[in-house]
Each structure stands twice: as C-alpha cells, then as structure tokens.
C-alpha cells in the first residue's frame, strides 16, 4: 500500500495527484508532450463511478495542445443555457433607470446632419450625463450600425460613462505632481466620507468619485476637480471631508 505522502515502501519514484502527473508530462514552453507516444491520451483526469472518463472543463488541454487543435467552448457537465436576446435586452433595460427619450431628439438631429458616432456619443452624454443603453440602441438604429459596434466604441473610450453619475462628480488628480503631494490620501478621505470606493456613485446619486490622470493644475497639487469647471488646489484629506460636508449641507 502506498503511504499517504505519495512514497511507496519500496522506495520507488514518488507519485503525485493525477493533475500533477499530467503537468509533469508537458513542456509548456515548447508546447510538446514529454515521453508520450503520439496519439496517447493525456488529459483523462477524472473517472465517473462507472469507471468512464469525463472532462471537467479545466481547459488545460486547450492551453497546452502542441498542435493547437483543441477548442473548449462548453462544459460537458452542465447543459448550455438557452440564450434569448430579447430577454437579455429587457433585463439590461430594467437594470437601468428610466430616461426621458424626448431629450434624445437633439442627438438624432445631429446624426441626420451628418455627425459621426463619436460626436453622437458626446452629445448623448452631454444630454444625460452618461450613456443609457436605450440611447445607444437608438443611435445604432439611426446610423444603421450593429449595437455591438456602438457599445464597443462607447466602452473603449474612458471619457464615456455607461452608468449614471452623481450630481457632483469629484475627480481626484493622480498625475505625478499630485500623487507625490498626497493625492492618494485625498482620494481615500473622499472615499471614507462618501462611503464608496473610487469609481462608484453614492446611492442618492449626489456624488461620483473618480481619479483622473491629470487636470492640468500641477502648481496646485494635490488638485481636485468638481464637475467640469471648479478646481480645488492644495487639498488635504481634512479639506476633502470638509468639502463633502459643505456640499451635502447645500443639497439639504
């Protein structure tokens, strides 16, 4: 009987788990099998109760196949769930707040005047403050483009927002000058006072906290921009908390 540590009493070569035995037989850099005759199975790792082999979808065979001929796009242990695009679209719409589509007329007018996709996205974001899914779908219909193409552009550029933002967008500069001057501590103070993480929006939709690469105010480091126009320079963590309290008081 083999010992629990994997060594035989007779001092034979130690044996590991089935997965270890498989990994031992692969040269990952050369993508070659080691000491295995061509055509010999290598990845039959798991046996069912009836002693038959089954795949557990680890994709190890796909990632290590020296011939690049194995593709794993399903897990045989679970049936593939049906996909209904209309159901998925309705679920995505329900997950977002309702928007006034009458305001979208300005976007349609620009598109019909000949504006491109990026300009249409900018106009939509200026209108709503973010890019609602319904607006993206209407842009795709108006321009005769697949929705996936419109969404791909909207999600590629960081200046476009796919989620609603707060009334007050706080942008903490993380440029070199601001970072050295203590911007991470300022961002942490905002996060603590607002009880959200960077990149999130407060549940009451009053504040959105984000970091940006540079706002062009290095002489005022650490600098913070409120909205698009207002800039606060040499802000300390205490000053960040004070600013949030002032804004909350004003809103109340």
Q: Give the H and E element order.
A: HEEEEHHHHHHEHHEEEH
> End-to-end distance, in Å?
76 Å
Structural class: alpha+beta
Query: What percent strand?
Result: 5-15%
Integer-rounded radius of gyration: 28 Å
Describe this structure in words.
The protein is α+β, with helices and mostly antiparallel strands and 252 residues long. Helix content is 38%, strand content 10%. It has ten helices and eight strands. The strands form three sheets. Strands 6-5-7-8 form a four-stranded mixed beta sheet, with helices on one face. A two-stranded antiparallel ribbon has the order 1-2. Helix 4 (105-112) packs antiparallel against helix 5, helix 5 (117-128) packs antiparallel against helix 6 and helix 6 (133-143) crosses helix 7 (147-156). The longest helix has 15 residues, at 237-251. It is extended and about 70 Å long. Residues 1-9 and 39-45 have low confidence and may be disordered.
Short structural summary:
The chain has 252 residues and is α+β, with helices and mostly antiparallel strands.
In terms of topology, how is this protein built?
Blueprint: H1 18-24, E1 26-27, E2 32-33, E3 46-47, E4 53-54, H2 60-64, H3 85-94, H4 105-112, H5 117-128, H6 133-143, H7 147-156, E5 168-173, H8 176-180, H9 183-194, E6 207-212, E7 224-226, E8 230-232, H10 237-251
Helix pairs in contact: 4-5, 5-6, 6-7, 9-10
Key descriptive features of the protein:
about 250 residues, alpha+beta, 4-stranded mixed sheet, two-stranded antiparallel ribbon, 10 helices, about 10% strand, extended, disordered N terminus
């Amino acid at each position: 009987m083999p010992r629990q540590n994997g060594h035989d009493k007779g001092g034979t070569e130690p044996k590991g788990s089935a997965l270890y035995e498989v990994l031992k037989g692969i040269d990952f850099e050369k993508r070659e099998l080691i000491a295995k005759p061509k055509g010999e199975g290598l990845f039959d790792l798991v046996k069912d109760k009836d002693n038959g082999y089954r795949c557990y979808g680890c994709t190890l065979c796909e990632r290590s196949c020296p011939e690049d001929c194995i593709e794993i796009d399903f897990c045989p242990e679970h049936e593939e769930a049906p996909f209904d695009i209309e159901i998925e679209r309705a679920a995505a719409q329900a997950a977002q707040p309702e928007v006034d589509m009458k305001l979208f007329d300005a976007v349609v007018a620009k598109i019909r005047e000949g504006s491109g996709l990026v300009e249409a996205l900018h106009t939509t974001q200026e209108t709503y403050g973010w890019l609602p899914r319904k607006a993206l779908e209407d842009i795709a219909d108006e321009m005769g483009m697949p929705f996936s193409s419109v969404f791909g552009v909207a999600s590629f550029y960081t200046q476009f927002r796919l989620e609603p933002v707060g009334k007050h967008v706080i942008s903490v500069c993380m440029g070199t000058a601001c970072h050295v001057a203590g911007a991470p501590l300022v961002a942490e103070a905002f996060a603590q006072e607002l009880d959200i993480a960077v990149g999130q929006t407060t549940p009451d939709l009053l504040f959105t906290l984000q970091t940006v690469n540079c706002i062009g105010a290095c002489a005022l480091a650490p600098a913070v921009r409120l909205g698009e126009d207002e800039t606060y320079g040499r802000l300390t963590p205490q000053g960040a908390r004070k600013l949030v309290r002032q804004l909350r008081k004003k809103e109340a």
